[in-house]
Amino acid sequence: MKKIGLVFAFLFTISFQINAQWFWQNPLPMSESLYDVTFIDENNGWAIGYLVTILKTTDGGQNWSISDYVTNVILESIDFIDTNNGWIVGREGTILKTSNAGITWNIDTLGANYFLTEIQFTDINIGWISAKDIINHKGLIFKTTDSGNNWLVKYDEPYNYTNSLFFINSNIGWAVGKDWNSGLVSLILKTTNGGNSWTQYFTGTYDDLFSVYFITADLGWAVGGYGKIFVSVDGGQTWALQHSDGSIDLHSVYFINSN
Prior knowledge:
single chain; 259 residues; 4-stranded antiparallel sheet
């Protein structure tokens, strides 16, 4: 009887191990790194990140659902123009587009040698992408006027790597990164004609800039390496160092008002 009991206990243990299921518990809803987030109102938002992570919330971020879309490309930037129409860009030239709030995504590519760093639309048709050509060592800015069906190169400069961009309207915009042509200095570009031409400005430092944001055509900020925060009050023509932490890089900046 003792042997029968031991055999039963052994078989029960094996059965439990085979049938046991594991569920992700913390942190919810997943553990991958997130690289960008966007909200179109106080409730509806999306976040993206490592290994095709696409998350959506409809309750202001209290709960998140995971998209079923699958690819092995790292996603870098997301932008929605309304509750239905959105775009995502990432490495290997990847562009994703949805017209049904992220239920399904259509995939396109600008080329595997492109590292797409930021995407922004100012309306349903007009949008921009900042990018790096990692094979030919170029910084690029692409523009679409047909909701992302076609993209034209509006900036193409060797060793001027563009990490981010921001447009305050369809004509005025900025891009930031690093200028390896001029001695590794910070790169700031500005256009006032929808990207047809770009003027380069300088912060006077050698740090990589990772993000730029303007609340008016004059007042804006740029952040980057070693905790640097720069402010401009003349539309990006001149920049003043506002803060320097020195210990950690800053990758994103956003303001809701001047303070």
